[in-house]
Specification:
It contains 15 helices and 16 strands. Helix 2 packs parallel to helix 3, helix 2 crosses helix 15 and helix 12 crosses helix 14. The N and C termini lie far apart (49 Å).
Length: 455
């Protein structure tokens, strides 16, 4: 038995002050009580964040696609994609593991305790299958275990280069040769995951343009229980135009009309939605995974959150290409994009209490957990793992803030220096702002030298 003493923990009904949280040797909460030794209480604990969309290998190119041509040529998502392909065709298995470990270490430092890895590099440099189909997925699992972050790996189905088009040679490492080949890959990843603690597996399709429509329908039928199903959708206007030309309707409309959606489906980006599509998604209870820092960096557009919330839509957050890694910054970017387009300041508060920060955290938490395949709407509860991000009580701004204003101060006015540490499974993975795993940093540096792409 081990006790943690906090000046406050955030529950669904607000802050509870001077709290002792007891955990068993497995890090599971056994009781939550008033702290009898309040002088030991430090920091304010929020539930750990879920990163609902990650491409780990892309961390190696964060910040590298900003040298734009001086000609009139447009630099957009599609030109950025060429840089991503160049990296994807270069990384070896050991590189993927080293990059993912460094990334996940940084995620922990910023308060993420669980990540959904949208993993689509499966084959070797020549496009041939590894003897172990789960080779690269296992590299991701090993990276997550090495730093102590929880993982839901989503092995991605990818088979074509566009609606009705053959795959491009640059996509050769992503491909499944058939529907059955993808099912074998997914089964191999599930078998691999049993060897790793806190490793779950979901289903995923890269995009509607990346998989034959009949196979999307068929794969959705394989999803059962709480298993999450992830897909990129409606991220770019060209994708919308190509989908209409091929199917006669918009991608999200097609998806909602042909797939029996529920809360276990997670549509990533969904940036460009019609009014009808907004209604269809909200009614279906499917979740949209919004990645504000990446969507802004790529010029994707701004998700229509205001009308979506008014219809009861559900959402979570992810960091995608990892141009940003702070969950509070993702929430702020999401909010401020809406304020700039609606000229209203109550982005999240227009649906219930009016407490913007509390509503944003709740949505990111509950729907983020669903994206991981976890059903738990309690913030901290007896019988669940203690996963938390702890805000220091030593910062003057936090010291002088009352409980009524604490959540919004953290969401809207904090930076990473205010994060005291991160707890996963009842263990400090980051404490006093430090995660002293220098071997991970050394391996990352050696990997970057080997790839020589950051010079």
């Amino acid at each position: 038995m081990h006790d943690f003493f906090f000046k406050g923990i955030l529950q669904s009904d607000g802050w509870h002050e001077n709290v002792a949280v007891s955990v068993n040797p497995k890090g599971v909460i056994t009781q939550i009580t008033n702290a009898q030794e309040s002088e030991k209480c430090t920091g304010f604990a929020l539930p750990g964040f879920q990163n609902a969309h990650s491409h780990a290998f892309q961390y190696a190119m964060a910040g590298l696609a900003e040298l734009h041509p001086t000609t009139m040529k447009k630099n957009d998502f599609w030109s950025w994609r060429e840089s991503m392909y160049a990296l994807a065709l270069k990384v070896q298995p050991e590189h993927i593991e080293a990059i993912a470990a460094m990334l996940y270490k940084e995620m922990l430092r910023h308060g993420y305790t669980h990540v959904a890895e949208f993993h689509y590099i499966h084959r070797d440099l020549n496009g041939s299958s590894y003897e172990n189909k789960a080779e690269l997925s296992e590299r991701i699992a090993r990276a997550a275990q090495s730093v102590g972050i929880k993982l839901t790996i989503i092995p991605i189905y990818y088979e074509q280069g566009g609606f009705g088009l053959p795959p491009q040679k640059e996509q050769r490492r992503f491909l499944s040769s058939s529907f059955e080949d993808y099912l074998e890959l997914n089964a191999a990843v599930k078998t691999m995951a049993t060897k790793y603690e806190n490793c779950e597996v979901g289903f995923g399709i890269h995009s509607m343009r990346g998989v034959a429509l009949e196979n999307i329908i068929e794969l959705a039928k394989h999803r059962t229980g709480n298993t999450p199903f992830h897909i990129h959708i409606a991220e770019q206007t060209k994708e919308i135009e190509d989908c209409i030309a091929f199917t006669g309707i918009r991608p999200t409309e097609w998806f909602a009309n042909n797939i029996e959606l529920n809360e276990n489906f997670h549509l990533v980006h969904a940036t460009h939605l019609s009014e009808n599509e907004i209604s269809l998604l909200a009614k279906s209870a499917a979740n949209v995974v919004i990645c504000p820092s990446t969507e802004g960096n790529l010029g994707d557009g701004i998700f229509p959150l205001d009308p979506y919330l008014k219809k009861g839509g559900k959402w979570s957050i992810g960091t995608d290409s990892h141009i940003g890694l702070n969950p509070f910054e993702e929430l702020r970017l999401l909010d401020y994009g809406q304020r700039l387009t609606t000229h209203s300041r109550n982005t999240f508060g227009n649906v219930s209490s009016g407490d913007n920060g509390a509503i944003a955290i709740k949505s990111a938490l509950i729907n983020g957990r669903k994206a991981m395949g976890v059903e738990n709407e309690m913030y901290f509860k007896v019988g669940s793992s203690l996963d938390a991000v702890v805000i220091t009580d030593k910062h003057p701004l936090i010291q002088m803030t009352g409980i009524k204003n604490l959540t919004n101060t953290i969401v809207y006015a904090s930076d990473s220096s205010m994060i005291e540490g991160t707890i996963v499974g009842g263990e400090w993975k980051v404490i006093n702002k430090e995660n002293n795993q220098t071997e991970i940093e050394d391996n990352f540096i050696q990997t970057m030298k080997a790839l020589s792409n950051r010079l």
